[in-house]
Every structure is written in C-alpha cells, then in structure tokens.
Design goal:
Strand order of the largest sheet: 3-2-1-4-5-6-10
Number of strands: 12
CATH architecture of one domain: 3-Layer(aba) Sandwich
Order of helices and strands: EHEEHEHHEHEEHEEHEEHEHHHHH
Distance between the termini: 42 Å
Strand content: 15-25%
Largest sheet: 7 strands, parallel
Bound molecules: nicotinamide-adenine-dinucleotide
Structural class: alpha/beta
C-alpha cells in the first residue's frame, strides 16, 4: 500500500488527508485526482507540493479511461471525491448521482481489474437518516432523506458490492460532520465564521434545534489512515467522537469566539427535510483499530476561526460567488405530505 491514489484531494477533508499521508515514511507516492469543481482548490494543497511524492491530476472520477490508467499505477485508493453539499443536491440530483454513484463504480471497476490492495470509500452518517434517540451502528438500515445522503448511501452499497461480488478489498468509513481549516464557506461553520468576521448577520433554520456531531477533520483523517492500514475488507467503520451541538449552541460558540452577539442572528423557516438529529456509535473502530479522537471542540473552533481570520485570501474570493455564501437554497415550497414523509 505504498502508492496511494486520493480522489477529491483538493477538497476540504481530502487535502487534510493528503498532507497527513505524505508524512508517512512507508508511503512512496501520493496522486491526487480531482476535477477542481467549485469545491476543489489546488491551493488547499499549497506547501504539500514541496513534497516530491505528490502528483496532481486534474480529471473526473467518471472518466473511465483516465481512472483505469491511474488505478493501474497505484496500490491503494482513498475515495473522497463527491458532490458534498446537501442544499445543492436539491437542485442538482443528477450531478450528485453521476459523481457520487457512477464515480464510485468507475473507481471500483478499475480497482477490480488491477488488484488494488485497499479501497477506502469515504461516506457519511447522513446515510442512516435522522434518529430521535440512540445512535446508529454499522449494521443499521440506511434511511437517507435528501438526495445527497441517498447518493452516498447508494455509493456505499455499490462499493461494498464490489467486495462481495469481485473480492475488491473495500472498506467504508462513515463520519459525522467535520470542521477545521480549508472548508468551503458554503458549509455552516465557515459560513457563520466568514459572515461574522465581516460583521454580517447569520441565519438559523427554525429555532436552531438540529443536532450534529462535530468532529475535527484531523481526527477523521487519523481514522481514515487507520482503516487504510488495518481495516477489514468488506466492513464499515463509523467515525464519530466529536461533540453533539444544536445549531443554536454552535452559533452561540461562534458568536462568542468572533466577538459578536445574538443581534447578529436571524431565524428563517426550516429547510426541506432538515434532519433533526444524527448520532453514531463508533465503538467498533475504537475497539478494532484503536481510534481515539484527540481534538476538543472549544479549542478546535478557536483555531478554525483563527485560520479564517488569518486567511481571507482563501475564502473572500468565494464571496463573489453568491451561491457559495448563500445560507440556504430556496426551493419550491414543499407539499405538506412530502414534509411529513421526512
Ligand atoms: P468537498 O466538497 O470539500 O470536496 C470534494 C472534492 O471532490 C473537491 O475537491 C472536488 O473538486 C472534488 N470532486 C467533485 N466532483 C468530482 C469529480 N467528478 N471528479 C473528481 N473530483 C471531484 O468535500 P469534503 O467535505 O472534503 O468531503 C469529502 C468526502 O467526505 C465526501 O465523499 C463527503 O461525502 C464525505 N463526508 C464529508 C463530511 C463533511 O463534514 N464535510 C462528513 C462526512 C462525510
């Protein structure tokens, strides 16, 4: 597993993972395959390019010929590339299915042909759908609500089917919400931070009652490396261990760190199918692979805000793309029966 192909390595989590894996002495080559969509930025890899082990390939994961040629020259694949923003998925279901499902199938197909030693497919807790109480374990049924989560659930099933059918050594990780530097300002933490840093208001859906588990991106990347090195093929590992917060409590923390007060907050109607709560049981990866998250949310948020404060050049240009900084995407008013179904 010394030659690693990382898809989506110019995105948020992928770029953190690339920096991490480049430091490993036993890794001889790291190739990033990334289409550089609105969410991918070559600058996210910045100084990583000083490391001669890193190569960047600009291309699409659904390009079967390109993918085949790349997979052939590697021993492991870590597959981050995806359309990742729930709000965008409401108006671009086809794009989400193409990248997330067909992209995964294209990679898995090549992995099968070239006898890849390990294929780590990166997924999300959103595939389990909302939970009123308790925590989802890896064997729980998939109940995705929104198109993004459905496309990820489908891609998980496709990836795992390549293990069962063809013996491709696929491992799946499902993590909770990541935060940290380099995240695109369409996602809630950088959205709030970049607005508060410019003295602009932030918006909370409904009463801000939605609960998410906030995991530092470096803890997730540590978990992914553990799975790359020691995960059992055909198995899924939940990756949690962050801090559960309602979006209202999250806003309160960020207001405090940014030196703003509640006057900066306005409430807007809830978005369609805004799952009330996600929660995952991650004892499996802790017991099997010794995973332990090490980042405390309070410190992690202070450091994250500090990064956005010190690097306006990294996110300010995105402010000129209105969609990227919109707090929510307005869609046609949902029919009541459809709302109930969520
Ligand atoms: P991101 O949107 O920041 O990055 C996605 C990357 O994939 C970008 O660099 C983009 O250019 C690239 N990409 C998109 N379409 C592509 C294509 N067709 N071909 C090649 N490259 C393409 O996403 P992220 O937040 O870093 O998430 C990475 C992975 O982790 C995704 O699979 C996502 O579903 C999963 N995940 C994310 C979170 C989170 O909190 N961010 C939580 C759980 C799981």
């Amino acid at each position: 597993m010394d030659k690693v192909l990382v898809t989506g390595g110019a995105g948020f989590i992928g770029s953190h993972f690339v920096r991490r894996i480049l430091q490993a002495d036993d890794i001889a080559q790291v190739t990033v395959l990334d289409a550089l969509t609105y969410a991918g930025h070559i600058e996210n890899l910045g100084e990583a390019f000083l490391n001669r082990k890193l190569t960047f390939v600009h291309g699409d994961v659904v390009d079967a010929e390109l993918v085949d040629g790349l997979v052939r020259r590697h021993t492991a694949v870590v597959h981050f590339a995806a359309e990742s923003h729930v709000d965008r998925s409401f108006s671009a279901v086809g794009t989400f299915l193409t990248t997330n499902v067909l992209g995964t199938q294209t990679l898995a197909d090549a992995a099968m042909r070239h006898g890849i030693e390990r294929f780590v497919h990166i997924s999300t807790d959103e595939v389990y759908g909302p939970l009123i109480e308790g925590a989802a374990s890896e064997s729980d049924p998939l109940r995705p609500t929104v198109p993004y989560a459905a496309s990820k659930a489908a891609s998980d099933l496709v990836a795992l089917s390549y293990h069962r059918t063809y013996g491709v050594p696929v491992c799946v990780t499902r993590s909770s919400n990541n935060y940290g530097p380099y995240q695109h300002p369409e996602k809630i933490i950088p959205l709030f931070v970049t607005r508060l840093l410019r003295d602009q208001p932030i918006t909370l859906h409904d009463r801000g009652q939605h609960v998410r588990n906030w995991l530092h991106v470096e803890d997730n990347c540590a978990a992914i490396e553990l799975v790359l090195r020691g995960g059992v093929p055909g198995e899924i590992c939940n990756v949690g261990g962050g801090t559960d917060l309602t979006s209202r409590d999250l806003a309160g923390e960020l207001l405090r760190i940014c030196g703003a007060d509640w006057d900066a907050v306005t409430h807007i109607p809830d978005r369609r199918c805004n799952d009330l709560r996600y929660a995952m049981d991650w004892t499996k990866i802790a017991q099997q692979l010794g995973y332990r998250p090490t980042h405390d949310l309070g410190t992690g948020l202070v450091e994250t805000v500090d990064w956005y404060r010190r690097n306006p050049d990294r996110w300010a240009p995105l402010a000129h793309r209105p969609y990227a900084l919109m707090p929510t995407v307005q869609v046609a008013a949902p029919r009541p029966e459809r709302d109930r179904a969520c």
